[in-house]
Amino acid sequence: MAEKKTPVVSEVAFDNVFGKMADELDPHCEGAKIGVMLTLMSAFSGYIGPDIRVKMGSGTAPMSIWAVLVGESGTGRKGATARVAMPIVRRAFNKWATTSIVDEGVPATALGLLAELADRDGASCFFLEEEGDDFVGATKNSRKLGPMFRKVWDGSPIGHKTAKTNVRVDEPHIGFVLHVQPDNWAAITGTLNASGGTFNRFLLVWVEQSKTVDLYRSDEEEAAYAATQKTLADRLREMGTHAANLGRDDPIDVTPDVARRIKEWHRPKCEDLTKGNKVLANMSERALAYMVRLAGLMAVADGRDQVSIADLDSALAIVTYSVDSVRYILPETGGESLRQKILYVLDEARNENGEPQPVSRSQLWEEIGKHIKAETIENEAEKCPNIRMWKGKSTGGRPPLYMQIIDDFEEVEEAEEDLVCSAV
Q1: Which domains does the chain have, with CATH numbers?
Q2: When comparing pLDDT for 386 and 180, which is higher?
Q3: Whether 83 contacts 69, CB under 8 Å
């Protein structure tokens, strides 16, 4: 099997105001420039809040950006990207940053997430989780956390209702950056939160050390860096001031010429990125939505109320790199994994009403190959929380094993403190 090639990001991806800021910070950072740029974009998207929207189809969408920087521990230099980007954000939006940046542990339960947002009276915020592997684990272990995060990304209401209290956030809005190791991110494929959409709401990019930066700088170099930080913070603050003049009644729009270009070029190119590969398409399902969100955010940051073709070109280059990163990181994108094969077989086993039906281990063997050991099949199925397994009655020999996919995962879940997590 040919070795996978490390993805390469096009310079077109940096042809926007955030990319230019990342260019100026790049000499001072050993981390990937794409990581610096997306951290700035995500934080800015959190700052501007839910009222700044971009037209999409017949409606509008919020411009919150959720990025996951995936790289090896140490050599990925994920933390280095935050160390150069976040001082700019904090300096530009000092008052907001003091209360609205969460960087000491993202909530590990749905109730914790709701409390975090409710404590701010619904104000927008920015999550930076450098221990993203913990978040991945928490999302896999909590059956409510993933669904609630999905609603937050969509901007749908979330709530917690009991006989004594009714806590509600009508328009949750956050920017979000995760730092994760590749093995841990690759392990989520085939889980409910992968197929259900929690993790594919993140724009994944591969990051690694880009250069070596001197540990010690001269006084002149320190002064030059401080001047760069001030300049960029002032620029980011101006971008936020412009955004504050926009509102829900003035969504970022496109001209007829740009709309035609999207239809003829950008959308087909975006959709072709994942065509013919179910796993890749599943994990990059929101590529088109992100292309529009990114382009809209670029327009806002540049002081415009209309998306340009240059915005779309840059956004498409970012999304292309993201899909290439998914292809590089996930082992299943070159072909179906055993877990995916099991899920596909179970998903196809339905009656005429579309209801899932039990599938025996023998039937699975017929579909995925009898050369695979029974123990291996069981182990893979156990990793999928949306697969139910049970043993039938023995007729003298080994009792038959049955599996069934669970469509409505919430119905089989124990209540978590009467949490209500539904769009209203």
Answers
A1: 11-334 (3.40.50), 338-409 (1.10.10)
A2: 180
A3: no
Rounded alpha-carbon distances, angstroms, from residue 81 to 91, 282, 285, 339: 16, 28, 26, 34
For residue 359, which phi and psi values (nearest 5 degrees)? -125, 130
Q: What is the dihedral of CA 136, 141, 144, 147, to 10 degrees?
A: 40
Query: Hey, what amino acid is at 212?
Result: T
Name the nearest CA neighbour of 138 among 197, 207, 184: 184
pLDDT tens readout for residues 87-140: 999 999 999 999 999 988 888 888 889 988 988 776 799 999 998 888 887 877
Count each helix (H run) and each strand (E run) in the chain, helices first. 18, 15
**Structure tokens given for 108:** 């590990």
Cα(158)–Cα(84) distance, integer angstroms: 34
Q: What is the pLDDT of residue 216?
A: 86
Q: State pLDDT tens for residues 290-318.
A: 999 999 999 999 999 999 999 999 999 99
Of 268, 288, 230, 291, nearest to 91 by C-alpha is: 230
Average pLDDT over residues 43-66: 92
CB 274 within 8 A of CB 320: no
Query: Cα dist. 37→101, 141, 172, 327 in Å?
Result: 17, 31, 24, 21
- Nearest C-alpha neighbor of 213 from the set 81, 86, 87: 81
**Tell me, what amino acid is at 239?**
M
